[in-house]
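To the team - magnesium ion complex, inputs and output below.
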Amino acid sequence: MSSQTLQAIRGMNDILPADAERWEAFEALIRDWLAAYGYRPIRMPLVEPTPLFARAIGDVTDIVEKEMYSFEDRLNGEQLTLRPEGTASCVRAVLQHNLLYDGPKRLWYMGPMFRHERPQKGRYRQFHQVGVEALGLSGPDIDAEQIIMCARLWDDLGLNADGNIKLEINSLGEAEERARHRADLIAYLERHVDQLDEDGKRRLHTNPLRILDTKNPALQGIVEAAPKLIDYLGENSLRHFEGVQQLLKDAAIPYRINPRLVRGLDYYNLTVFEWVTDALGAQGTVCAGGRYDGLVAQLGGKSAPACGFAMGVERLMALLEAQNAGIDMPAPDVYVVHQGEAAQRLAFRAAEMLRDIGCAVLTHMGGGSFKSQFKRADASGAQLALVIGDDEAAGEQVTVKPLRVEAEQRRVALDDLADVVSDWLYGSDEEFSEE
Ligand code: ATP
Ligand code: MG
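Output:
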């Protein structure tokens, strides 16, 4: 290469057609799945005022401390941030438009999120989430329903045949319970401060709960023996947690209580959950969420309970690929091969007629022999080829040739084309080869 070519930003991926088609099939499935649970779409901007995230996610979280793409708009001096997650934006939008005025809302969104992390498999700087938020509902029933709906999605995707995605849950209790636990936890960790790593020391007085979540093997002993939040939960918190578990049991969804599951964002309380897999190496959490009853008030709204989760689309797609699960690839129904000027004009008319009846049609472009055009037709995955040469063009006719099964090709008048193709593609009792 003589001159250097431009590259995408590190950690930000192009999604090329073969993958993008898989993503679209995934998205179509997602839409049906969400509709089945009464969730409605919402779309927020990709850029928000920086203070939104500091306030919602918490100043001493990984995201706000070191992962945000924040910058000053040099045209007007505003402090802006590419959204690192969707919950804060979603709640901001709900408050701004007073969406809770007539009762609870079930909302979802899908799109890119931005975090300045070290790129590696399953961890990117632009990645995508499907986010699901229920606002205005306080019972354990909605927490359980959100978990149950995840389980259904794994089934719909063909992902969980052998229990490959496992559910972990925990309860973070309420603020006062966390405060008592926090005091004891800090006292405990202070007694072991010499054994903490740098991160741990830094977090000791800011976000000690996060130390419990450490991936450093050297800290596992200390962390195992640390005071457990669950032992500090009061009656209401315990009842809520048990309510969730009862509904999970009724739905026959296996789970593990992981007392060290704390989540990396500050806004959570009571139920938290993660769906994890071993199949993706270190980046094994495909979906995570929980309750965040304090966030609405924290962002200036009238206090309202809420609960939600987000899944990482890249990780799910990787898992689908690793397991060869699920999604059918789209192919055109018909590929049109043609040669000569009159034939090309007829090809255009025939293709539009077929699109009128709902067919996906790929018209060959760029010329070439019939042989080379048929290669393309084959590779496209189409069921049928239309063949139009001088003969056909002269008689306003089209040859319909099945590509995927042994069957006679057949020459038909343009006027009959839609019927013949529709019978072939969408079914009829008639034998194709019979005249
Ligand atoms: P992790 O512990 O992997 O950093 P997290 O707690 O930061 O995850 P959340 O903020 O809960 O992640 O986001 C929900 C989901 O979004 C994650 O479970 C994961 O599937 C996905 N996700 C988060 N960060 C990234 C990233 N940088 N690249 C790809 N997917 C991501
Ligand atoms: Mg993270």
